[in-house]
Each structure stands twice: as C-alpha cells, then as structure tokens.
Write a structure and sequence with these properties.
There is one protein chain. The protein has 440 residues and is of the alpha/beta class. It folds into three domains: 12-32 and 245-374, Nitrogenase molybdenum iron protein domain (Rossmann fold); 37-120 and 133-240, Nitrogenase molybdenum iron protein domain (Rossmann fold); 406-438, no CATH class. It is built from 17 helices and 14 strands. It has helices at residues 21-29, 37-53, 55-65, 80-89, 92-109, 149-162, 180-189, 199-208, 225-234, 259-270, 285-298, 305-315, 324-334, 346-350, 367-372, 408-424, 428-435; strands spanning 12-15, 117-120, 126-133, 136-140, 166-170, 193-195, 218-220, 239-240, 248-253, 277-282, 317-320, 338-342, 358-361, 398-405. α2 crosses α3, α2 (37-53) crosses α9 (225-234) and α16 (408-424) runs antiparallel to α17. The termini are far apart.
Length: 440
C-alpha cells in the first residue's frame, strides 16, 4: 500500500446478514435524479428557439454558454483542413494509441453486423427481412469539464461498420478551445462534418436541422443533464441511443486481488463526477478493510480527488456477503453498467450473471481497458437499465424492414385466416381487402 492514511473516507458499509440490510441497500440504490422544473423549461425554450430560428438561435446560445462572443456561423464548422491537420498536432504516441484503439474497436464491432435474409414457402410465398443502415447520424461529444476522444471512437466506428452514409459530430468548444485529440479521432474514423456547438442547442440542431447543421435520423453520445433532458424531449422525432445516467462500477473480489488495484478500479469511475457510483462486494471483511485503507492513502494523490471523495461518500459502498453466490445475486439486483469479477475463476461466476452492461473477467481486466481499447463499446446502460438494455453497437445504426411477397395460392390461404381475425376485431375493410384475393 502506498503512503500512509491521510484522509478518512466515510463510505457506506453493509453486511447482507444484518437485519437492516434491505432498507440500507434500497437507500444506497436510490438515485433520485430529481426533476428540475426550471431546467426542463430552459431546455424546452432552447429547443423551441432552435426549431424556429435555426442558425441564429444556435449562434446566440453558443456565444452565451461557451463564452465565444466573436463566433460566426462561418466558423461554427471545423474545416476539412483543420480536421486533417489535427492528426499532425498530436504526438506520435497519441496517434498510435488512437490507431490501435480504433483498430481493436472496429474488429470487435465487425462481429456484430447483421445480414438480410428470406425464405420461400411451399406455395411460393416469400418472407424475409432487409437490413439497412441509417442514412445520417449525429454524435454528441462532451467538451466542457473534460473532452473525450474515446467517445468519438466508440460512437463513430460502429456507425461506420454498420454502413451509415453520413456522420455529423457536435462538440462544444468553450472559449474557442477544442482538444486536438477529439478532432484527430474524428478524422481517423471518418466523421463527415464537425460543428463546435454543445448543450441542448446541439441536440435541437441535430434533431430539427438548421440552415447550416443538417438534421439526423439518430443522436448518440453522452452529455450533461441539459443534454440528457434535451434528448428525452426530442425522442420520437429522432432516434436515440439511450439517456445515460452517472457512471457505475461494481467489483466482486475475493482476498486474492491486490487491494490497491481494486481501490484504483473504484476510483476510475468515481472520478467521472460526483454522482458516479462505485461499489465493492466481497465475502472477506478484512479485504474490504484493506481496500478502504488503500483508498484513503491513494486519494490525496488523485488529480480529481474532490470529485472522487464526493462520489465515494455519496453513492459508494463496501458490501460484505456470505459467499460468491450471494455476491452474484446481489450484482443481478444492481444491474451495473460495469461489473468486474476479480477472482481466480471468473467464468464460474459469469454463468450466473444476468444483468450487466459489460463484464470484466479476472484480476488483470480493469474496467479502464474497456473504456479505451479492449474493443467492446463503452457506451453502456446505466441506472439498472442493463435489465433490459444492451451496449451501443452496430445494431443501433441499422434498422430492419420486413419483406412479404405472397403468391396467388399463398394469398388465398392467408386471406381466409386474415378475414376471420379482422372481422373478429370489427375491421371490415381489412377483411374485405384480404377477401378480394380469394376471388381470382
């Protein structure tokens, strides 16, 4: 363990056998993202203004919120020259890292591609399914407190693998500053156009379109609560990936893992923001104590220690269980975004995992590798939505169309069934439409 204990962390400690466990666990899992009525009103006003005023509203909001008073529509879009030069502005090491990550992410997602199919029945009727890529998608990349070239890779690459024709990216550039790594990543993976606009106004522009920013079929990518509220408001007018909540990590570990490793694994998600959740489950109480001591020693060394402390004390927990079976059962109740199984035989636990966005197997597979370069997507369901949702992937950028072609004999057979069912629903036109095919 590095250093000596310097900071006490007030982290929730739970034991499954305690009488008050269920009540305390329910409190821990409550994440009441309270509806901010004023925020929603502000977001709806922004959406309305952008829908009605287009570029003028986008420009006004961007000047105001991103402190860019001299911004004009002409320099809202990153030029092709700026995009290509971004790759030369970063270091060789950074360029190689982006290239390695992009290659691995592309290789992984190429296994997700879907194919059209059809089959012919004995009477000549053909049934099938056509797979088509979305034509134009929008990627929102955060650029406020931090910027994320990894977000560009994780969102744009599966879209490209899916066959999307045009990728539009929006990224805020507060104070006219933008991370060249973000632009380099966009250039590397073939993003078509990049606009330096963020917040709810970016979501509105991507949804409705303006004179300069084209509307898209689907919007993907994370953002702050204004972005999340805007995405919720425009859903149905445009497709969405998901409305993600704060980042989450759940680690199940026995006493065989270096406690410093686990402490840093928990920090890796806690450093995202104060509402992130990091939980450790173990059947070994002494190991939980060791990890806590490591966290307290490591915290002063962290650049984002204030954020980590707030997250760990607000929503973090150390939970003692009776055995690994109970640990996995609890993990399924939590349905975490990220689940690490830091044990000798993780595959034996994986067999019983039902609900998790991504599972990281073994002591040498920290979640951080998945965030950047393992190859799987880091856009994952949060807030227990892993119970019914999946990671972002190629399938999110493709749509399925049913194909039906009836032969005369097939139509006559199906028409009898359709007629009976339609008349039972009092939909006479349906019935007669089918019955006409009986007259030949």
């Amino acid at each position: 363990m590095v250093g000596a204990q310097t900071n006490r962390l007030n982290i929730v400690r739970l034991t499954t056998g305690d009488e008050a466990f269920e009540t305390s666990f329910a409190t821990l899992m409550e994440h009441n993202e309270a509806t901010d009525a004023q925020l929603n009103r502000d977001v709806l006003d922004i959406l309305t203004q952008v829908r009605e005023q287009g570029d003028r509203a986008v420009l006004n909001y961007t000047r105001r919120f991103d402190e860019r008073p001299a911004l004009t529509i002409e320099n809202l879009e990153i030029s092709a020259q700026q995009m290509s030069s971004a790759l030369t502005q970063i270091t060789t090491e950074q360029r190689e890292a982006l290239t390695v990550a992009a290659t691995r992410i592309r290789n992984y997602h190429e296994h997700q591609t879907q194919q059209s199919w059809q089959f012919e029945e004995a009477d000549g009727t053909v049934l099938g399914q056509r797979i088509n890529a979305l034509q134009r998608v929008g990627i929102y990349v955060p650029g406020g407190k931090a910027s994320y070239p990894s977000t560009v890779l994780m969102n744009a690459i599966p879209a490209r693998v899916a066959g999307v024709e045009e990728i539009i990216m929006t990224v805020p550039a507060p104070g006219d500053s933008i991370n060249p790594l973000v632009l380099a990543a966009a250039e590397l993976v073939g993003v078509n156009r990049v606009f330096t606009v963020g917040g709810a106004q970016a979501i509105a522009a991507l949804c409705y379109g303006t004179e300069t920013i084209p509307s898209v079929d689907k919007i993907v990518g994370p953002g702050n609560r204004y972005v999340a509220a805007a995405k919720k408001a425009v859903f149905g007018q445009v497709g969405l990936d998901m409305v993600a909540g704060p980042s989450e990590i759940l680690v199940i570990s026995d006493a065989g893992t270096n406690p410093e490793w686990i402490a840093m694994d928990l920090f890796s998600q806690a450093e995202h923001d104060e509402e992130a959740q990091a939980i450790l489950i173990s059947p070994d109480g002494e190991f939980l104590d060791q990890v806590l001591r490591c966290m307290e020693a490591l915290l002063p060394t962290m650049e984002r220690q204030a954020i980590i402390r707030a997250a760990m004390e607000r929503r973090g927990a150390l939970i003692k269980v009776s055995d690994m079976d109970e640990a996995v059962a609890l993990a399924n109740r939590i349905a975490p975004e990220h689940l690490q199984l830091a044990v000798d035989e993780p595959a034996t636990l994986l067999a019983d995992v039902r609900h998790a966005g991504a599972v990281f197997l073994g002591r040498h597979t920290p979640e951080a590798l998945g965030d950047y370069c393992a190859g799987s997507n880091h856009v994952l369901p949060t807030s227990t939505t892993a119970r019914f949702s999946s990671p972002l992937g190629v399938y999110d950028f493709q749509k399925r169309t049913s194909v039906i072609a009836c032969s005369p004999a097939g139509a006559a057979t199906l028409a009898k069934t359709a007629s009976v069912l339609a008349r039972s629903e009092s939909l006479t036109a349906h019935a007669r439409s089918a019955e006409y095919r009986l007259q030949e």
